[in-house]
Hints:
- By secondary structure, the chain is an alpha+beta fold.
- Helices cover about 25% and strands about 25% of the residues.
Amino acid sequence: MWxxxxxxxxxxxxxxxxxxxxxxxxxxxxxxxxxAYSAQDILIQRRAEERAERIVGVKLGLTSExxxxxxxxxxxxxAWVTSxxxxxxxxxxxVASLIHPRVEPEIVFEMGExxxxxxxxxxxxxxxxxxxRAGLEVIDSRFTDFSFALPDVVxxxxxxxxxxxGDVVVAPDELDLAAEPCTLSxxxxxxxxxxxxxxxxxxxxxxxxxxxxxxxxGHRIEKGTLVLTGxxxxxxxxxxGHTVSAAFERLGSVSxxxx
Length: 259
Ligand code: 0L1
Ligand code: MG
């Protein structure tokens, strides 16, 4: 018999054993979105207790058309990032420590104020942002071939595995975020291009969406935390000896090498 504790256990075990598996929704059609978010909360709570990690921010998933098309899901979602997921810039990531890691470019906010829904607009959301930064997120679905229904990926904390931030820190009123261009490359070969507008028309819309969705579940986005606004482009596989880079115009560059 499935319940939300068993969902969190199963996904935690898959990550620890570096193995993927089938959709839980195929075995338990009763895994709806509300239960999936509860399972996500349990999974993060266990991670905090067992690995002494703390929540350092929020991540949005499936906020761009490129990501939605690839995953076949048209609804954005929210999840959490923890202290254990943050990588030091320049440190290679061991691919064998994960299942099938992929990397995607992100626009990341550092919050200067608490933000809580309902009723948060893009303008209110952006007023709560202190800095904007470039990021790369490593996703590592606990589902075979990254094949999941929305409740599966919600319960799996939106495939979160790791992230790294660029060095450049820009105040939000110092750049045109929707126009900010991003080039994703592997070993300096361009594989995808996007602009900030690819994330919900403006990454501030994604932030407002997260604040409102989290508000419905009784959470706030706290001052001092990060918000990863979602992959701007489709993700690329991270492989040993190869470097994935995201180059932005104002936000600088950020790279990650697999080992
Ligand atoms: O930023 C993102 O859109 C991550 C989405 C999470 C789901 C996935 O692509 O595995
Ligand atoms: Mg992402």
